Amino acid sequence: MKSIIVVTYNSALYIDSCLASIEKNISSMDQVFVIDNNSNDNTVDRVEKFIANKNNFRLIVQKNNLGFASAVNVGLEISQGEYIFLINPDTSFKEGILEKTISLAKEKSADICGVRQINEKGKSLGSFGKYPSAIVNFFETTWLAKIFPIGRYTRYNFLSKKMFVSNRQVDWVGGGFMLLGKKVLEKIGKLDENFFMYFEDVDFCQRAKRAGLTVWFFGTIQVLHYGGKSFSDKNSIEQKKYSRESLKYFMQKK
Q1: What pLDDT score was predicted for residue 232?
Q2: What structural domains does the chain harbor?
Q3: Which of 72, 99, 117, 182 could form a disulfide with 127 if both were Cys (CB 3.0 to 4.6 A apart)?
């Protein structure tokens, strides 16, 4: 049994495509939870229309936007599947992808795993990387991270391209498409809700590895991720603010 959690916030543009992808990948025994973070567009209307008469889809509308981690935890509380997927609303993928990811996770004994994410042009996105540290943050805030795979987010380039098409253990994988086993929650608990957005996935993976669990990146599995479609360009300042605050909190926790 699989449980899928999708957190939405002003996600109307791509949510239909995402839910259609999920529907192709589940059975009647699986669960799908859409947790809406108080969208002010027509996301909720589109979700309600899509899930009408679908018994294994459930929409939960939050009265306030308390952040990504908080919304994910709502879904984790009610998920009953042995395998749980966190899937961004602006992703799309082919039939069989979820089972293929589970199969590879079993083969590698992976407790948490992510997959290769590409944009509309087919370019690989930074969906895995290294834990923030003094040296890693230095690379990330300079042009060096664009050349060497040492930044917090591994960027696709000539030196790193082999990393994006291979299966390997990594420090962390992104919550835009993440698979975790139920036993992970039993061992380390849910996401840290002090992260409003950004770095909650890095923190979750770090806690898992410290508990003796494994984190894998599967470059042989691919999904389309449009990326950041819940924010408009005018909110880029707000995005940077959340990123700075989350990084500061992450470093304080260490």
Answers
A1: 45
A2: 2-253 (3.90.550.10)
A3: 117
Residues 120-132 have pLDDT tens digits of 999 999 899 999 8
How crowded is residue 228: how many other Cβ atoms within 10 Å of its Cβ? 14
The lowest-confidence range among 64-68, 210-214, 227-231 is 227-231
> Which of 67-76, 139-148, 180-189 is least confident?
139-148
**56-110: per-residue pLDDT in tens?**
999 999 999 989 999 999 999 999 999 999 999 999 999 999 999 999 999 999 9
How far apart, in Å, are the Cα atoms of 56 and each of 60, 90, 164? 13, 21, 34
Whole-angstrom CA distances from 229 to 62, 98, 238 are: 19, 22, 14
Angle ∠(44,88,41) on CA atoms, nearest 5:
25
189: left (phi over 0), alpha (psi -120 to 50) or beta: left
- Positive/negative CA dihedral, 235, 14, 62, 242: negative
